[in-house]
Design brief:
The structure holds two protein chains of two kinds.
Chain A (H helix, E strand, L loop, with lengths): L1 H12 L9 H14 L1 H27 L22 H17 L4 H5 L3 H5 L5 H35 L5 H31 L3 H30 L4 H5 L5 H11 L3 H13 L6 H8 L9 H31 L6
Chain B lengths: L3 E12 L2 E12 L3 E5 L6 H8 L7 E6 L8 H7 E4 L11 H12 L3 H14 L15 H15 L3 E5 L7 H16 L3 E6 L2 H5 L4 E6 L2 E6 L1 H8 L4 E8 L3 H6 L4 E8 L2 E6 L4 H10 L3 E8 L3 H11 L15
Parallel strand pairs in B: 3-7, 3-8, 5-6, 6-7
Antiparallel strand pairs in B: 1-2, 1-4, 8-9, 10-12, 10-13, 11-12
The chains are: A mainly alpha, B alpha/beta.
């Protein structure tokens, strides 16, 4: 009896009507806003400028090498060796800035303009507003990144005079998807702060602060914490090898930063001949062919890709719950 | 009974320990202008947000056009237009584009959209600035644009939160005129304000809020007789002998006061002008002037708080959860 009553109560508590009503209206308006905003124009210009410079130098470098290389075209994105600046590195820095730039005022901006209560008094649920905003941000980032990706490939075709192989295209496509997921994480984070903080300036500063912390400080801190949690074993240290336990902790901790995850996934996709510890060992034993085939590279990058997408969803859900419970009055 | 559009019963809102709205009950009828009056922080906006389903109800119930705003917010919001306190628009968009966005959210057919926007802008006198960016609009123009949105939405109930605050007298008069025209369309208007004299002129019934409760509810004359006991002032200027006694004998007159040679001030329970005029004429006096003062809400309000302890000003912020 009690169970039935609980079910009836639950049904009574449910709100009626579709939470998606108005979603496409919000989505297209936000998308239009993003694409026509001066802010987006500036950010896009920034990426184009940095990207063009970096890709140009990469192309010059490739033209001067005569060695045989099956992945010549991909070197445009990630030049081999220790190049100071690569297109991938530029992206890993600029993508968070663009994503934060798009998201930091998406919710609190509505409160500050005093449009929130007016919009929410229309027959839509808050779900539609938040989803519409997030999807529009993600779509804007996707459009920007795909454009950039096509531009670089086009430039490569002209400058290098060789078409990319099928495998290269496959790898570059996965790279594009990973980049969009990476952008989504930062967009979700910026929107989360735009829900938590009523001031847009605070939200922007906290987002950028967290980004700087994760990008610059966290890798070093992760090393430190890893050693504190699991100290170096003297036997490994004597051989000049890292202690596996310590290394695992350090890696695990550093992967809290989306930048690390993105970097690992990108290296796996774009540098098929660069190896992680395990593959290096296996290669030494002659078990693995080098370079890795595409599907094996995807398997290698899979955990990082899933983590990025999961991180984006988790951040969005936290913001979603907070937004649902937020008081409308300013 | 079927004409009730809003019915609130023991409506309560608590924020943690503080109670913003404490068990209020009221009804609003179709085509009625109902005023929620009271100092800032008395719970007016919270009450409005509960009616729109924009904030959760802690206790009691409210029904809007027969729907429960907490469970069926979409149905409620389709029938109710809301003009928030200091309404905002997207400044970089034109007035018409702002309305177009709302129209799309409401789900008005694209074919009908522009027609309804044009007629709504025309009714509030913004037709010639429809293609201008809202960023350049004055406060009064924004409030009017907010009303245009409600007109476009074609609603049964219009809820206006402090619609006249911060407007100059001319803009206020224009706004009140539009609100009256809403009433003529059969729309029930619920408006909140802390400016009593402005609101008095257009409200059919009012509810006086104090510290989250409705202190008084009814028409202005009802409140006047409740609080002031009578409350109508009739001034008579007439020459004649023994007029004071004659006027005092008119039914409904409680008190006669001589305020000057040939000038009398009557405190009455109703409009006694015809009877007073007849009394003067029957006594052989010559009537020169007869004036009638409706009791002002301000007087009622101040008297209420004098007699019931506490002053409206004392409650500032204390109950305000925002």
């Amino acid at each position: 009896m009690a169970g039935t009553r609980a079910i009836i109560m639950e049904r009574k508590m449910q709100r009626e009507g579709s939470p998606w009503r108005g979603l496409s209206v919000v989505f297209f308006r936000e998308l239009f806003d993003h694409l026509t905003s001066v802010r987006m124009l500036v950010l896009q210009f920034l990426v184009l400028l940095f990207g063009a410079a970096v890709v140009y130098f990469a192309a010059e470098q490739i033209r001067n090498t005569t060695a045989e290389d099956p992945f010549l075209f991909m070197r445009l994105f990630a030049p081999p060796g220790q190049t100071l600046l690569s297109f991938v590195l530029v992206l890993s820095i600029l993508v968070p800035i663009i994503a934060i730039g798009l998201g930091f005022d998406s919710v609190n901006g509505e409160y500050n303009r005093r449009t929130m209560s007016r919009i929410l008094s229309q027959p839509i649920y808050r779900d539609a507003l938040l989803f519409g905003k997030f999807l529009a941000g993600l779509a804007t980032l996707t459009i920007a990144l795909v454009t950039l990706w096509l531009l670089v490939i086009g430039f490569g075709l002209l400058r290098l005079g060789i078409p990319p192989s099928g495998e290269e295209i496959g790898r570059l496509l996965v790279f594009l998807v990973v980049t969009i997921a990476y952008a989504g994480v930062w967009l979700a984070l910026a929107m989360l702060f735009s829900i938590f903080f009523r001031s847009t300036a605070t939200a922007a500063l906290v987002s950028l602060g967290l980004w700087l912390f994760l990008a610059l400080l966290w890798p070093a801190l992760a090393q430190l914490f890893g050693e504190m949690i699991s100290p170096q074993d003297i036997r490994f240290a004597a051989l000049g090898l890292p202690t596996p336990d310590t290394l695992a902790w350090q890696q695990g901790l550093s992967r809290i930063s989306p930048g690390t995850l993105y970097g690992e996934a990108v290296v796996a996709m774009l540098n098929p001949d660069a190896q992680s510890m395990t593959t290096l060992l296996a290669q030494f034993q002659g078990r693995i062919q080098t370079p890795l085939p595409l599907d094996q590279s995807i398997i290698q990058a899979w955990p990082q890709m899933v983590s990025l997408i999961a991180g984006m969803i988790v951040l969005f859900v936290i913001g979603y719950v907070a937004f649902q419970r937020q008081e409308v009055r300013a | 009974m079927s004409d009730l559009v809003i019915e609130a019963r023991d409506l309560t809102k608590r924020y943690g320990q503080a109670t913003a709205v404490n068990g209020i009950s009221f009804t609003v009828e179709k085509g009625e202008i109902f005023g929620l009056l009271g100092p800032n922080g008395a719970g007016k906006t919270t009450t409005i947000l509960m009616m729109l389903g924009l904030t959760e109800v802690s206790g009691g119930s409210v029904s809007v056009m027969g729907y429960d705003p907490a469970r069926q917010p979409l149905q409620v919001k389709r029938l109710v237009g809301y003009l928030p306190d200091t309404v905002g628009f997207y400044d970089y968009m034109t007035a018409a584009d702002n309305l177009r966005y709302t129209a799309a959210l409401i789900g008005i057919e694209p074919k009908e959209r522009d027609k309804r926007i044009a007629s709504a802008l025309d009714r509030v006198g913004l037709a010639d600035v429809g293609t201008k960016h809202v960023g350049a609009f004055s406060r009064g123009m924004r409030q009017r644009l907010g009303l245009a949105e409600i007109l476009m939405k074609d609603v049964q109930i219009a809820i206006l939160d402090e619609p006249t605050s911060g407007l100059d007298p001319h803009a206020t008069a224009e706004l009140l005129e539009t609100i009256r025209s809403l009433k003529h369309d059969g729309v029930a208007v619920l408006l909140s304000s802390h400016l009593l004299d402005r609101v008095q002129s257009i409200c059919d019934r009012v509810a006086l809020f104090n510290a989250g409760k409705i202190a008084l509810i009814g028409t202005v004359p009802q409140l006047a007789s409740q609080v002031l006991g009578g409350g109508y002032h009739v001034e008579v200027e007439a020459d004649g002998v023994g007029l004071e006694q004659k006027l005092g004998a008119v039914p409904g007159v409680r008190q006669v006061e001589s305020v000057g040679p040939g000038r009398f001030r009557l405190l009455a329970e109703g409009d006694v002008r015809p009877q007073a005029a007849a009394a003067v004429v029957n006594a052989g006096g010559s009537l020169r002037r007869l004036s009638f003062d409706e009791p002002s809400l301000d007087t009622i309000y101040n008297r209420y708080f004098q007699t019931h302890g506490g002053h409206p000003g004392d409650h500032h912020g204390a109950q305000n959860a925002a």
